[in-house]
Amino acid sequence: MRASDEPIISVRNLSKHYPLRSWWGGKGSVFRAVENVSFDIRPGETLGLVGESGSGKSTIGRAVTMLNPPTEGSVAFEGTNLSMLSAKAMRAKRARIQTVFQDPYAALNPRMSVGDYVSEAFKLHRPDMSRAERREAVAGLFERVGLEPRFAGRFPHQFSGGQRQRVCIARAIALKPSFIVADEPIAALDVSIQAQVVNLLQDLQAELGLSYLFISHDLRMVRYLCHRVAVLWRGRIVELAESDALYDDPRHPYTRRLLGAVPVPVPAVERARLAAESAAPASAIAEGGDLVEVAPGHWVATPPEDRP
Ligand SMILES: Nc1ncnc2c1ncn2[C@@H]1O[C@H](COP(=O)(O)OP(=O)(O)OP(=O)(O)O)[C@@H](O)[C@H]1O
Ligand SMILES: [Mg+2]
């Protein structure tokens, strides 16, 4: 990771609210699924996003790729604010931002050969390529993700779960993206296969300089794979740090609970400690929104009563 580089993706004050309809169909209030989330991801970096079910991880993943745009806040990708783009300009950008999901079977089309599925990316975005060029490119992609190119004519049901996820990864890298959102990409796979897919993601990162937002419940895998980790709690980031700092020295009570560390016995004492540590200069509060920098690059949310 080249830490000095400009971020690939820069998320600022992102919120996503869903309307809550009352049972008679009238206008209700809103559900705040994600609230005021800010983070950067640098070239070649993997940022992990962890938090319990329903904390808003997938919502953030869909918002940063504009599959389900944010209610508020901005997402800058390679220096361009995505919400300002026309539909046509967004289509061009979309090739550089890809997503890999938990369930490769659902992502694939059961009636389309896996080769055609990967080739579709070229059909949609590269009208300059001939049929022969597409076939050759697909074969190259299959090799790169560890599939035999001669399997390109087969259909999704003829593959194992791990192989299907490799097909999805082949499609994700087809258009040479710089950023991939991986939303629980190994959660549906056999444990024995999970490490292989993670290793593939790492190899591709090294070869292609990819940045990842890696969403996962698997805290050990997140530590292994991610350079930095953001902890999400009820739609807010409560802690963001380099992986080792987060795992070895978790500061927020929720992070400690999540990591299964010893619970903090006296909340008042902990609040006082956090407040003392959070006497950071105001200029340091830029990246994290409500977060304060308690050590270089280690951001923690302060309890509301301690906020200035
Ligand atoms: N389209 C929607 N309309 C209303 N509420 C939604 C919608 N999508 C998500 N939510 C709600 O937003 C919250 C966050 O959901 P999200 O799927 O982002 O959580 P998650 O952290 O990815 O959970 P999981 O770990 O189970 O995948 C949840 O309470 C969910 O019910
Ligand atoms: Mg999810």
The percent range for strand residues is 15-25%
Corresponding CATH architecture: 3-Layer(aba) Sandwich
Question: What is the name of the CATH class?
Answer: Alpha Beta
> Quick one: overall form?
globular
User: How many strands in all?
Assistant: 12
Helix/strand order: EEEHEEHEHHHHEHEHEEHHHEE
Structural class: alpha/beta
Instruction: Identify the CATH homologous superfamily.
Output: P-loop containing nucleotide triphosphate hydrolases
DSSP summary: helix tally: 11
- The overall pLDDT average reads 88
Largest sheet: 8 strands, mixed
Hetero groups: adenosine-5'-triphosphate, magnesium ion
**What's the end-to-end separation, in Å?**
34 Å
- Using the CA coordinates, give the radius of gyration: 21 Å
CATH topology type: Rossmann fold
Number of domains: 1
Membrane topology: Peripheral membrane protein
InterPro entries: AAA+_ATPase, ABC_transp_ATP-bind, ABC_transporter-like_ATP-bd, ABC_transporter-like_CS, Oligopep_ABC_C, P-loop_NTPase
Protein name: Oligopeptide transport ATP-binding protein OppF
Domain ABC transporter: 9-259
